[in-house]
Amino acid sequence: MTFYINVFAVQPLLVKPKTVYFEIAGIWLALNLQEDIPRQEIHQSYTHIAFSAKEKDLDTLRARLQRAGATIEEGRQRNPEGEGQSIYFRDPDGHLLEFHTGTLEQRLDYYRK
Where is the VOC domain (predicted)? Predict the structure, then answer.
């Protein structure tokens, strides 16, 4: 819970002993405490959730991630002509997330070419 509060600068909508709800950029995020389940395979996946960011905010976001203890992943090579910039990071459970400059439509246009 603290990780998401610090990284996304949001407050939880609901806090229960084993569940926390957030709304981040129109997405409902439910965190549920589940102990004794395997989590290693998640580190092998590129599947992720991307959040739009402004290029001018990337340094601030990177610093916020570092303060929150995020694991920042090395991103893949980018084409500077149309792909934008990204910061990939993992939450404490290992889920891969991304702050990405540009819009979803720009990204889709790039991949349509």
Answer: 1-102
Torsion sign across C-alpha atoms 63, 66, 68, 72? positive
Asked if 58 contacts 99 with a C-beta cutoff of 8 angstroms, the reply is yes
Q: Extract the tokens encoding 81.
A: 């002509």
In sequence order, what are the beta bridge partners of 15? 20
Structural domain containing residue 33:
2-112
- For residue 47, name the pLDDT band (cuts at 50, 70, 90): confident
Please tell me the total count of domains within the chain.
1
Here the CATH number for the domain that contains residue 83 is 3.10.180.10
Q: Which of 26, 27, 22, 25 is closest to 11 using CA atoms?
A: 22
H or E stretch covering 92: none
pTM for the structure as a whole: 0.81
- pLDDT of residue 88 exceeding 70, the answer is yes
Q: Which sequence positions are flagged as catalytic?
A: 98
Neighbour order of strands in the sheet with 27-32: 14-16, 19-24, 27-32
